[in-house]
Design brief:
Layout lengths: L1 H13 L22 H6 L2 H13 L3 H12 L9 H25 L5 H30 L4 H29 L1
Helix pairs in contact: 1-7, 4-5, 5-6, 6-7
Amino acid sequence: MKKRLSLLLMAFILLMPTTIFAAPDNTNNTSSAGVTAKDEEALPQKLQDLQAYADMLTPIEAYETTALKAYQKYPMVTTSNRKDVYSSLTNAVIPNYKKVVTMVSKVKAPNAELQSIHNLMIKGSQLQLEGFTLLKEAVYKKKSLAPANNKLEAGRKLVNQYTVKINEYVDKYSN
């Protein structure tokens, strides 16, 4: 059972670089990681906490996916697509990512260890939003994208640290 949850959570975490949050799976009385209520009762408390935490994150996935798809639509800003990039940032990326940051900030992890890890996600998503906002300003004013890219990279590093810490948490409590 522990091995099954570990594999399910690892699949969840491996999807995080492209999508920070797992998609919900509410069929057959299962949680987002595919664990039934009966299975959940057999899990150690720390893994039950992780499952509850993952379930808290699932509603955020739709906003995050929408923001990232809009952002990834224009991998490079050129003179010919500058207005489209600006429009995408203004109308899709930033509004959806603001929802991500707001919702992530409201999540309270079930235990102190997970909350400490979650704080990396909060700070990383805030930096990402700041980066998107700087990018929008740079595109509008035809200025350097370097400050925006630096802010986005700082956010990505924190999100990557978050992923590493979640993996460590799973390894620590699933053995």
